[in-house]
Amino acid sequence: GAVVSQHPSWVICKSGTSVKIECRSLDFQATTMFWYRQFPKKSLMLMATSNEGSKATYEQGVEKDKFLINHASLTLSTLTVTSAHPEDSSFYICSARQVAGGTRNEQFFGPGTRLTVL
Amino acid sequence: AQKITQTQPGMFVQEKEAVTLDCTYDTSDPSYGLFWYKQPSSGEMIFLIYQGSYDQQNATEGRYSLNFQKARKSANLVISASQLGDSAMYFCAMSTGGSYIPTFGRGTSLIVHP
């Protein structure tokens, strides 16, 4: 199956700093990637849809200036949490949709990044 | 709008027994797909099984089968011969023909005990 990686797998940072999380599709091209946020024992909340070569589409209530998304290539999308605060601490998961052959609209998920802001 | 409902916050099953995790959905789009994902404590979302709205037969993948009842709008996951490693959160999700972005249910926590 298709593989999606995320880096880092966990990060601890001080309040006020920015953190970049990378999402890579390793063996397929992904024109579209998705960023989710998950609180403990809760479901995944879609934050934004990342489109290669264009601006991301953010879900209602998600601050685009706070969560910067860049999808510079067909295999890489990055999420930057700017001026992070303790309330941004969460589990962030990305997923990627295959360009071709994905008639099932199947998404392949990365392993997630656990962010802790002190 | 599309909606996924998982009414079981937690389920317990004995090892080697079968368990059914409930999922109901709602959409006005005639074309849709239903997914089940497993999320162990490590956090990774693992794809288990898929059912398309036009598929005539229920999907099966090894020990996983999807009990698709279109008229009732339900897509329950059946895990046969449970194993200790099946203990995890299980999420039902749906995407529609009009939007491939999936909607996730709240999840069900499954605990398999010896």
Throw out a few tags for this protein.
heterodimer, A: 118 residues, mainly beta, four-stranded antiparallel β-sheet, B: 114 residues
How would you characterize the overall build of this protein?
The complex is a heterodimer of chains A (118) and B (114). With 118 residues, chain A is mainly beta. Chain A contains no helices and eleven strands. Chain A is 0% helix and 52% strand. In chain A, the strands form two sheets. In chain A, strands 2, 4, 5, 6, 9, 10 and 11 form a seven-stranded mixed sheet that branches. A four-stranded antiparallel sheet of chain A has the order 1-3-8-7, with no helix packed on it. Chain A starts with a strand and ends with a strand. Chain B is mostly beta strands and 114 residues long. In chain B, the strands form three sheets. In chain B, strands 2, 5, 6, 10, 11 and 12 form a six-stranded mixed sheet that branches. Chain B has a four-stranded antiparallel sheet with strand order 3-9-8-7, with no helix packed on it. In chain B, a hairpin with a 6-residue loop joins strand 5 and strand 6. Chain B starts with a strand and ends with a strand. In chain B, 35% of the residues are buried. Classes of the chains: A mainly beta (118), B mainly beta (114).
Give the structure's gist in a few sentences.
Chain A is mainly β. In chain A, 0% of the residues lie in helices and 52% in strands. Helices cover 0% and strands 56% of the residues of chain B.
Roughly what fraction of the amino acids of chain B lie in strands?
over 45%
Helix content of chain B: under 10%
- Give the SSE order of chain A as H and E letters: EEEEEEEEEEE
Describe the main β-sheet of chain B briefly: 6 strands, mixed
Tell me, rounded to a whole number, the average pLDDT of chain B.
93
Give the low-pLDDT segments of chain A.
none
Helix content of chain A: under 10%
Number of strands of chain A: 11
Uncertain segments of chain B: none
Please give the count of helices of chain B.
0
Q: Report how far apart the termini of chain A are.
A: 37 Å
Roughly how many Å is the radius of gyration of chain A?
Answer: 14 Å
Radius of gyration of chain B, CA atoms, in whole angstroms: 14 Å
User: What structural class should be given to the helix and strand makeup of chain A?
Assistant: mainly beta
What coarse outline of chain B follows from CA principal-axis ratios? Answer: globular
Number of strands of chain B: 12
For the largest interface, the chains and their residue counts are: A-B, 24 and 22 residues
Structural class of chain B: mainly beta
